[in-house]
Amino acid sequence: MPASVLWAVDLFGRVYTLSTAGQYWQLCRDAQLEFKRLSAATQCCWGIAGDNQVYLYVGASDVPIRRREETYENQRWNPMGGFCEKLLPSDRWPWSDVSGLQHRLLDGVALPSPHWEWESDWYVDENFGGEPTEKGGWTYAIDFPATYTRDKKWNSCVRRRKWIRYRRYKSRDVWAKIPSKDDPKDLPDPFSDLSVGGWEITEEPVGRLSVWAVSLQGKVWYREDVSHPNPEGSSWSLVDTPGEAVQISCGPHDLLWVTLWEGQALVREGINRNNPKGSSWSVVEPPGAGNGITHVSAGVSVVWAVTKDRKVWFRRGVNSHNPCGTSWLEMVGEMTMVNVGLNDQVWGIGCEERVVYFRQGVTPSELSGKTWKAIVAARESDHSHSGSSSSLLSAGCFFGDEVKGGSESAPSDTDAASEAERPRPEQSAPEELSDNSRDPKGSSALSPETGGSAECASVDTCPAEGQGEATQAPGASERPVVASTPAELPWTNIDLKEPRNAPSHSTAGFAETTGLSSLGLCPLGLDEPYGVDEPLLWAWVSGGSCTVEVGSALKWFTVQSGLSPSVQSLSLSITPAQTAAWRKQIFQQLTERTKRELENFRHYEQAVEQSVWVKTGSLQWWCDSKPHKWVDVRVALEQFTGHDGTHDSILFIYYMVHEEKKYFHVFLNEVTALVPVLSEAKHCFALYNPERTRQRWPVRLAAPTEQDMNDWLALLSLSCCISRKVHGRPSPRAIWSVTCKGDVFVSEPSPDLEAQDRLLPCDQMFWRQMGGHLSMVEANSRGVVWGIGYDHTAWVYTGGYSGGCVHGLATSNSNIYTQSDVKSICIYENQRWNPVTGYTSRGLPTDRYMWSDATGLQECTKASTKPPSLQWTWVSDWYVDFSVPGGTDQEGWQYASDFPASYHGYKTMKDFVRRRCWARKCKLVTSGPWLEVAPVALGDVSIIPESPESPEGDGRGRSIALWAVSDKGDILCRLGVSELNPAGSSWLHIGTDQPFASISIGACYQVWAVARDGSAFYRGSVSPSRPAGDCWYHIPSPPKQRLTQVSVGQTSVYALDENGNLWYRGGVTPSYPQGSSWEHVSTNVRRVSVGPLDQGLRRGVFQVWVIADKVQGTHGLSRGTVCRRTGVQPQEPRGLGWDYGIGGGWDHISVRANATRASRSVSTEQEAQDPVCC
Predict the structure, then answer these.
(1) Start and end of every Peroxin/Ferlin domain (predicted)?
(2) Of 24, 131, 490, 1094, which shows the fewest CB atoms inside 10 Å?
(3) Is the peptide bond before 576 cis (omega within 30 degrees of 0)?
(4) Confidence of residue 201 (pLDDT cuts 50, 70, 90)
């Protein structure tokens, strides 16, 4: 089964699938059943057949679905006969589960349904705690329950061993009936509707599904324990409702809507990871009185509905925090049902013609879409009936004028406009309707009787895409009647008066058309319920497993043969003489066209460059299209020099698709970044340009060896710099950033950055890599740059521009030094308390992995955890880390009431879980333009930014303020820092009452700091004459928030809390530098940097930059994205929006050196301009 398909049911109960990459409906296997309802998910599809029973379809896969069954054999020691199965009356069962409370014999463990099969017989698990046990697999303890050990001791009075057996789900690629309980009293009523969703609930375990159903008696049922390892679930549970339900819809997240017999809608609230069934119901009234809701469909953040009069409605303001939404918006169209799939894409089925429609123009910014477009894909058997004669007919219609009526064939998207321009008085066909998104009341449909609606629904005059402009229709009778074909058939609600008889196959009857139900390709199979020239009539559609990306090209809307069935019948009368004449005519026309075009271009000079050289090689490319995988490719870098001496380069990437050679190219003068990618198995790097940056989907390439990757990176980087004429060391006002891999990048501001009419968008900024490996970098506009490594070592920039995989000029080698970095890789051992056995490595099904990362969402064991990349090597063994926040006990354990919670280093009666941090160090050795600053290890550093108001004539020896936080939390001030001596001379310790985590100094010597407990502090009286200040002032944190970082510019103070919220300190003035209150700015922020132009001296200057945690692009989601705050000005210091730039793996950015001054004339011009918001 394809990974992304659209499911549908026709009027005869047949199930079909349509792939996003295909063009034909495929009949589902095992289609002996007749279905009424379908609800699809990414890996399966649930349905209700004609017998009102629920069936499940799970697609085949190379990875089987396996489930492990366990039972424990328990024995007690007897003085007469040793260990035996005779237990005390107060003991557990001889054969039980792990808790000992349930009787569980080997023969009593049966398969849950006929769709499972045993893989093997029962066998003893001889592994205990990762170590083998003695022969027999027994573990011993003093009593039940207790702590079990592998070794038998003198006081071991009980023992147990675990028996294991695996079962496999075998019903793949077939419809499997969901079993019911044996007790008829517990059987739910026959079902009338069902819906699948909930697989993307926040922190939901991967593979879990929420299956909801409605019975014929109007009751709502929930299927328990449905997940990928258990696709059938376990049982049905009744959920009380305030009325009789008719239909139900569950979105991928936490939206659940139900329609009632009275026409109202119920919305389930309180759905979350711990309570997937929700907690309460809320009632939503229908759009109008007496016009109740008959059908509803929920998505991620949208809800669509159909009322009794077949009108389609869109629910505004729907999200996880407000699942009920705010108001209804009427949409153009009349449907029997609608369905919301992945990415909130929408499908529907027309009322009369029973055609499946797709909602075009649905984007995250416009969830309601723009227009309905019919899917005219034929069944898979239809494409074999169009032969060479039909192809010649199409060619003859284009090149010759001998065949009459050729213009009546079904056009493609490119020539549909010319066909639509020919009015046919004897025909009446539908026209494409678009929603008037500017009308707050929505748009209603036009009809010949009314002549138009009061809300003026917009109607396209041309049915083909991209042809003509949309105009307002004063009335349907005033419009010219346009012929329409299945290839361009849009949706309409105009009531057609023509009879719905089947068309004649004669040539004379070809000019006549029928109703919408007779349009479309028709199957010719004798075993099908459809006759010749009859379309598929649909009853239900489900897009829960159909991923349609915004802007993707689908093949669903054009007839692939190029001819309608009626035109295909016309091809039977074509004689061989006509075919030969057409071929001769086509050849003559092509010959004349070639001669004519060559004559027109003879006076042009040959496009031959003066100098061209090419480097080729073999790499691997991460395929853009699904399925995403590494593909072997050939790459060629072509660099050429023009007549004027300019240099440019193009990178060609050649690959194979279905034994067909294809390629794409990248202009290196458009490349914005070349980034090494963090990978445990491959030497790979990513290539960004503005388009790829917006998509969040770079070109990923992998080399066979580290040396090959470094060579390609060096060559491509050098070519990019040559194309952009960027050479030498970065300017003092460059923007610095660091990726999560530790690579350092700089972006050069334009010399007239503030003089541009439109500032350069972030996605067009060029980032070049500098040598070295760091975790953070801070700089100021006088050329002083400091960095901190992962091992808290401080480094100072030497002025070079090479090192590592970055090759600079020979003159920069004197400033390149060897640099090393050490980081610790941490994993967590998690345990849960068991009343029988105490703390054990067996948790609940909803618990985190017993060996995981800090979040518990990823499984990380000692054996499977590798260094961050192949450039790193282990330098220690695993050890218990006792320095984690919150403290530990003597064994390194931290305790809490549940996962996750606040951990502490001591055990209480309410602590049911515990964890222990294991760490292992790895080391990287590289080179770069950095010198170590010894001997204090640092956790944070801040350099005073150059104020725009600073005098220009200051000497290079003037002192520069630099503050830092040590790895122990001490506040330090560096003395003797200047342009001539960027490393400074000595540290000055600043007394504090508690350890600190972050510090920042502003352009006017304002020093702000954040303690490890999340509180903020301000250092008073700091000046060049008093570099240490005098005392700390405590600043209250935002309510119920713990701050983690602070950044100070010229006048503004921004802070970041542990939840990713960005805060602005309001009320900061020279007379009251502490400010008055915190104002929330944004969420989803990982790091913030405020430059000296934070509020700007005029409009259009932006100096608040962040690293966003998650940014959704058109093709993917990126974590760690460089963003610039737009609209920051004195009247609006918090800004207005974000301009998203390079992203995917960025951890740190510093714009504190970007203090470019602009001329007064330019400032006057830009004062009248609005800020550019991208």
Answers:
(1) 64-125, 137-170, 820-881, 892-925
(2) 131
(3) no
(4) confident
